Amino acid sequence: MVSYEQVAWARRLKIRHLESFLVLDDAGTLTEAAARMHMTQSAMSHWLADLEELVGMPLVTRGRRIQLTAAGVVMKRLAVSVLGDISRTQMELGAVAEGRTARLHIGSVWAGVARGVPGALAQFQSLHPHISVTVSESPFSHLLEGLENKQLDVVVGSLDARAHHPRLQHRELFEDNVCLVVGRASRFWNAPGPVRLADLLQESWIMPPKGTLMRSQMDTALLDSGVPWLLPKVETAAITTLQALVHQGDYVGVCSEAMAEYQAALGTLRILPLDRAIRFGPVGVVWSRDNTAEAVQLFVEHITRSVGRPDGAEDASKNIA
Fold it and tell me: What crossing angle do the helices spanning 15-27 and 41-55 adopt, rounded to 10°?
């Protein structure tokens, strides 16, 4: 059992302490942090000294830009967690005030938006009309940050190694591939038969940013096809930017097969037939182990049934250590 002495310092901790500490970490300097908090630099320095005295150890090292100490990293984690809980509680209280008993914030990559999330969400709200839902779209790395700081409850995205974090659970929904797409302005719009990647070396490419899973899979496929290096004309993770560019010019774009099929059905893009498949990987639903809210569990079960693998794949969350 935790003793009073072990948590005595935390009893004197205020929300303002945590807010100010996150501002200081983001600003990088006492001067900038003071300006953002509408304080003098002297007052900011005094506040930091008080917080360090309260904790009992230095939280930052001072220089041209402050750097968090090991204790500072721990305090930042506490600040993100506590302020995230407060933000979530505020939204839930707002939902109660409006006559809604629960709120669910879903984050999704474009593949999830294209395949599964809208249909599953419409059905989900028909079954659970008391649950208010917000949907945000962003790259998977940003969505995982949202889970960590508790701004998001559930994420639908590509299940790479980051989804296997011990604090997360996930279930696989479907397998996705990487596709090449063109617009009506492309000379490949009516191209018959399969096209080789090696024959597209001189085209104007729109690629996902470096470091993304889709870019890595695409680069690997190019290497396997004998194309050792390719300079994209544009790098973007935004499907809206890709759509606008291929509509206006002779580009070859790279996106997920789920999104490509969705846009092709609308007539806005055409999937360029290739002589080989390029695997992207599984797309799944991810949530925090410590988020036991009923709305989260209900949505996970629902989207797994409505979008999940038809072969009844085992719940991947059971395999996470």
Answer: 120
The residues, ordered by sequence, that sit 6+ positions from 51 with a Cβ below 8 Å of its Cβ are 17, 20, 21, 59
Tokens at 225, concatenated: 């096809």
Please report how many Cα atoms fall inside a 13 Å half-sphere around the Cα of residue 77, on the Cβ side.
Answer: 6
Q: Are 207 and 254 in contact (CB under 8 A)?
A: yes
Q: How far is CA 125 from CA 110, 121, 236, 286, in A?
A: 21, 6, 33, 20
Query: How many angstroms separate the CA atoms of 45 and 43, rounded?
Result: 5
> What does the pLDDT read at residue 92?
65
Measured distance CA(55)–CA(17) in Å, rounded: 11
Element (H, E) at 241: helix 239-248
**What does the pLDDT read at residue 321?**
29
How many angstroms separate the CA atoms of 258 and 177, rounded?
8
Give the distance from CA 303 to its chain's centroid: 18
User: What is the pLDDT at residue 113?
Assistant: 64
Note the pLDDT of residue 227: 80
Ranges of H-type helices in 189-238: 213-224
- The dihedral sign for the CA sequence 278, 175, 109, 73: negative
- Determine contact, residues 287/147, Cβ cutoff 8 Å: yes
Cα separation, 26 vs 37, in Å, equals 12
The residues of the chain scoring below 70 in pLDDT are: 1-8, 88, 91-92, 95-101, 110-115, 308-321
CB-hemisphere CA count at 13 Å for 260?
20
State how far the Cα of 56 lies from the Cα of 160, in Å rounded to an integer: 39
- Which residues are paired to 256 by β-bridges? 178
- Report pLDDT for 111: 59
